[in-house]
Amino acid sequence: MKRVALYAAALGFVVFAGFPFYWMLITAFKQNRDLYVGASVTSHVPWIFNDPPTLDHVKLLFGQTDFPRWVLNTLVVVVAVAVITVAVAVPAGYSLARLVGRWGEGLGMGIFFTYLIPPTLLFVPFSRLVSLLGLQDSLGALILIYPTITIPFCTWLVMGFLRSVPWDIEEQAMIDGYSRLAVILKVAPRLIVPGILTVVVFTFTLVLQEFVYALTFISSVDKMTVSLGVPIALVRGDVYHWGALMAAALFTSIPLAIVYNAFMDRFIQGFTMGAVKG
Amino acid sequence: MAGIEIRNLRKHFGDLHAVDGVTLSIHDGEFLVLLGSSGSGKTTLLRMIAGLERPTSGEIHIGDQRVDGDVPPRARGIAMVFQSYALYPHRTVFQNIAFPLEASRTPRKQIEEKVRWAAELFSISRYLDRYPRQLSGGERQRVALCRALVRDPKVFLLDEPLANLDAKLRNTARDDLKRFQRRIKTTTVYVTHDQVEAMGLGDRIVVMERGKVRQIGTPQEVYEEPVDTFVATFVGQPPMNLLEARDPALPGRTLLGFRPEHFLPKGVFGPSDDTRPFRFAVRRVEYLGSDRYVYGSVVEAGAAPGEVTIIAKLPATIALPIPEGETHEFAVPRRALRYFDADTGLKRAP
């Protein structure tokens, strides 16, 4: 009986999590006359294919827009921003958590507060900076600006994560023959792996959904990222190309969902388990 | 092989004086236990010896090397076992034990030999390929000891290494630890808040309270001749009974101290024994199998029963019935009486 309830609850969550994907899937492959049916037609069932599926929207997306180009641009930006963020935020978070002692907390809070400044306040000064550096309308602008969002947040994240990782192992390594520097370079990274993965995931999320800065600094279609290009190309006036929009959303979100799930297991596994009492 | 000299060592964290002027001489090959409740400064003292904490002032010498300045932990010739064991989670047992040897660039073959020798000594050879998370608490503890051993340290520093084991395992682990230390004869500093561990393991015990050393001595000295009321009540379970003496033969404001196991029904003693009698108003008797704990208060002649709870510990060999709620004749042998100044808490001559 308990099992039945458990499975029922699990099924509920699966439906909840899976429905958006299902909706994107059928919308992306429905014919237009199956999609745009007036609300008055009560005999029409919206969540199944009433007409045979079609590839028209996918063809529109890949043939008449720069979608593959945007995906590539997005990947370039995401990878660059992730590398910069990990390179800066991980050492910063580590030193705030481990080395500065009492100052760490205040400084960490300060860094976190900078994350709370809304982008709408910042893009005017940023645009001066971007034009000063000659980065207008290039991916470089985004690669420069996005870390201002990701680094404070991720520094704070790493700091919080490291507080939960006991010092003992690093101190043990210092007693066992390593210098502090060697500990930081050789021992600590292995302990921080889940923290680094979390940073990468957050960077992905933040960058993929970012719209305001991309809209401000990018104007050429071939320089756009997915989050900017898709709504600009597929919403024409008040005409929404729902099929193609959903196809774009589907093709970007499915690989992401798979990657997230693969990583999520590693977070939950509890990497430090067995190192301390547990 | 080396002794440790600590001179007037202090560590202040802001206003908190975690270690407040400790002077201590640890002999070569000695098993010294730092005993104290949490916040007594025992762990901070150990961490300063290890080099994980920098002293505010004072000196530490390990062997003939002064180490309190800029000597990093790795150069102090020490090995430490943390309470958590601090095993490297992503390394197998073998790699864990080999770690300090790899760090000192020992040749591969020698590492292999040494790890196998140490693992044999602690009977963990079967687990060499496992990861720490696949081991039980007792096994992890032995891995941590193995890793400490292979370095051939001058000094072992152990921070409550038995605290995370269950009670049954702790007894055997304690025995193993003591036999192991006797065998290798390396100077060992052991931190614990458990007085049973301290008594069982230590060649000498250092009782610490609020950053200061209260007493240094063999387990027997600390137990039988406590220097003050703190040590008297901290060491021993149940603690030493303390009672204001109303004895004209003694100076005013004197506390009488006696261990619960010396406080027995008068009938137990022979007529030739020199005892101090007490009238004992028994409140409650606790049956614990091998012992009975009798709780009550002492009734002095012409006075109301005292407020202070006095405990008697009667071994099972004394079968005398002790009804609750009645007053009985008890006594303490005079040689077991200790005297303390009620104001300073310090021991004084009778």
Structural descriptors:
heterodimer, A: 278 residues, mainly alpha, MetI-like fold, two-stranded antiparallel sheet, 13 helices, disordered C terminus, B: 350 residues, alpha+beta, Rossmann fold, OB fold (Dihydrolipoamide Acetyltransferase, E2P), 2 domains, six-stranded mixed sheet, 24% helix, elongated
Descriptive notes:
- The complex is a heterodimer of chains A (278) and B (350).
- With 278 residues, chain A is an all-alpha fold.
- Chain A contains 13 helices and 2 strands, in the order ααααααααααααββα.
- Chain A has helices at 2-29, 32-35, 56-64, 67-98, 102-115, 119-132, 139-145, 147-163, 168-175, 180-209, 212-217, 226-234, 242-268, and strands spanning 235-236, 239-240.
- In chain A, strands 1-2 form a two-stranded antiparallel sheet.
- Chain A starts with a helix and ends in a 10-residue tail after the last helix.
- Residues 269-278 of chain A have low confidence and may be disordered.
- Chain B folds into 2 domains: 4-234, P-loop containing nucleotide triphosphate hydrolases (Rossmann fold); 241-341, Nucleic acid-binding proteins (OB fold (Dihydrolipoamide Acetyltransferase, E2P), Beta Barrel).
- Chain B is built from 8 helices and 18 strands.
- Chain B has helices at 42-50, 93-103, 108-121, 137-149, 167-184, 195-201, 219-224, 229-234; strands at 4-13, 16-26, 31-35, 57-62, 65-66, 78-81, 155-159, 187-192, 204-209, 212-217, 241-244, 254-258, 264-265, 275-287, 291-299, 310-315, 327-333, 338-341.
- In chain B, the strands form 4 sheets. In chain B, strands 6-7-8-3-9-10 form a 6-stranded mixed sheet, with helices on both faces. A 5-stranded antiparallel sheet of chain B has the order 13-17-14-15-16, with no helix packed on it.
- Chain B is elongated, with a radius of gyration of 24 Å.
- The model of chain B has no long low-confidence stretch (mean pLDDT 90).
- Chain A binds chain B through residues 166, 168-169, 171-180, 187, 190-191, 271-278, and chain B through 50-52, 72-74, 78-80, 82-90, 99-100, 103-104, 131-135, 137, 140, 147, 151, 164.
